[in-house]
Design a protein that fits this description.
By secondary structure, this protein is an all-alpha fold. The chain has six helices and no strands. The longest helix is centred in the last third of the chain and has 34 residues.
């Protein structure tokens, strides 16, 4: 004869200790008190800029893809959207604070400057050639994205300059 199962559980199902039950983990507060997501970052100027860069790159990508524009236009807008989204997630999830071996704002500046140079060429070609209205709209959005990249690079340069003055860029001991 099998032992009687507790009330509310199916016969033959494994019984979990109270600390391992799924409901206990959901009720338990986080151990460290630190959250994984920086909820204040999207409200900062840099966070709002990253979000707007991602959305404008998405809009340019959609315009180029729908209009049947040259593959380089679509690829550049798509890559800019993905790379900017990755930097947004990097700062949003505070991965930059955990991986201190790389100066992330400097990598972000490098990305913004290179993206601005490529966007200048591609957006001007898209506007000059303007095979259809979708390509023209994608080119205009590319120029807007170019301005956002330059503003992002300037803000990041100011952030690095201010952090260096306070001694935050020194490696941890």
């Amino acid at each position: 004869m099998a032992p009687a199962s507790p009330a509310g559980s199916a016969p033959g199902s494994p019984r979990l200790p109270p600390s391992r039950s799924p409901g206990a983990a959901a009720r338990r507060p986080p151990a460290t008190g630190r959250t994984l997501v920086d909820r204040a970052f999207p409200r900062t100027p840099q966070g709002a800029l990253k979000i707007s860069r991602t959305l404008v790159a998405l809009a340019a990508f959609i315009c180029f893809a729908v209009s049947g524009a040259h593959g380089a236009y679509t690829a550049l807008a798509g890559m800019e959207m993905v790379i900017t989204l990755l930097f947004l997630l990097l700062y949003l999830l505070r991965i930059d604070a955990r991986m201190r071996f790389l100066l992330w704002p400097l990598a972000d500046i490098f990305n913004s400057v290179i993206a601005a140079l490529f966007l200048l060429v591609v957006a001007l070609f898209a506007i000059i050639i303007k095979t259809n209205k979708g390509t023209l709209a994608g080119g205009v959005l590319g120029l807007i994205l170019l301005v956002l990249c330059i503003v992002d690079a300037v803000l990041l340069c100011k952030k690095i300059r201010l952090d260096r003055g306070r001694g935050r860029s020194a490696p941890p001991k």
